[in-house]
Amino acid sequence: MPSPLIISHRTQMGTMPENSLEGIEAAMHSGVDGIEIDVRQTADGEIVLMHDDSLLRVTGFDVKIKDLTIQELSEYHLTNTHTKNGSVKIPTLREVLHFIDSKTLLVIEPKESKLESRIAEILAERNNIDQCWVWCLDPEVIREIPSKFTHVPTWLSFGMNSPLSNDPEIVIQSAMEFGVKGITANYKLLNEDLIILVHSYGLQVAAWTVNEIDAIENLKSLNVDVICSDFPERIFNI
Questions:
Q1: What is the model's pLDDT at position 44?
Q2: Residue 155, exposed/middle/buried by CB under 10 A (0-12, 13-18, 19+)?
Q3: Which residues are paired to 101 by β-bridges?
Q4: Which of 106, 138, 144, 238 gives 20 to 30 Å between its CA and that of 207?
Q5: CATH number at residue 139
Q6: What is the pLDDT of residues 113-166, one digit of tens each?
Q7: Structural domain span for residue 173
Q8: For the chain, how many structural domains are there in total?
């Protein structure tokens, strides 16, 4: 049975500040196959790592990313879980591409629409396209990516809040239409029949966000292709 690729979620949010260079360093040290990051755009067009549209949860300040320039954003630091002294900065996508090693896959998840062109420009600057995937819950983002950067594998996500549907047949039809590499799903929505169905279309299956040992064991037995976890070291130990 082939082993699934192991992706560390939000850099490595289970043990490190989420979406941080510190998280990337820890994930690379652990030997993961890839690292997932969330990205948004600042007021002056810089792409930065951030899951939420507001800084409130991770810094304590209720300010929107879209309302801040990159210079203004640099004044805020991550102060939530796993930060010891409040000095962890919010990195840019450019910084990540300089920091991550050449053997580690970077999985980029746009958290808002219309970022495709900016992401493509930044990837082209560093020639990092071959080391990246893009996955997203928004089907329009996935639809647009091939016109911006042809060689980046894409994944269509679905889950509890999917804009498409939680009907697997509709998701698969859309995935085939968009030419994606695979489907990523909330692991609680995956079962043996669905995984077999997706594989029958030549698509891969990625499961997120899988932290419980029994769920990891079950998904490995069902031959999922990718497991995304806050605690990737748990997968290595199974």
A1: 98
A2: buried
A3: none
A4: 144
A5: 3.20.20.190
A6: 999 999 999 998 887 788 999 999 999 999 999 888 888 999 999 887 676 666
A7: 5-236
A8: 1
